[in-house]
User: What shape does this take?
Amino acid sequence: SSVLANLVLGIIIGPSGFKIFENTGWSETLAQVGILFFLCEMGLELKIERLKNMWRDVFVVGLAQFMITTGVIYFVGRHLLALSHIQSFVIGTALSLSSSAFVLQMLDENQERGTRHGRSAFGILLLQDL
Assistant: This one.
């Protein structure tokens, strides 16, 4: 996918690779502007009627996904990796959140954003971005 290609390109030209770009401070600002545009695009797609129809995907499915994933990763961290409660919880919550940009890009590439699972994924991502 193009998302993976962009990640690999960043590694290759960045400080870890050929060092074409060693000072990455400017890219952080550019990334923040990109996130603002991305969230604005998500907002442009949301109509009040659609948001009303998505409440189940946003709140029920989104919260369930977050809590189940956090719980499973917490359990693995606590009982299999012998991490503390706090370490397990922080890792669980961090890993239960998806990258909206990555997931939506993949849905668009596969023309699946309008499908039932695409709408559910959009609802989950919307909750996570809140």
Observations:
- The chain has a mean pLDDT of 86.
- The radius of gyration is 18 Å.
- Residues 74 and 88 are 5 Å apart (CA to CA).
- The chain has seven helices and no strands.
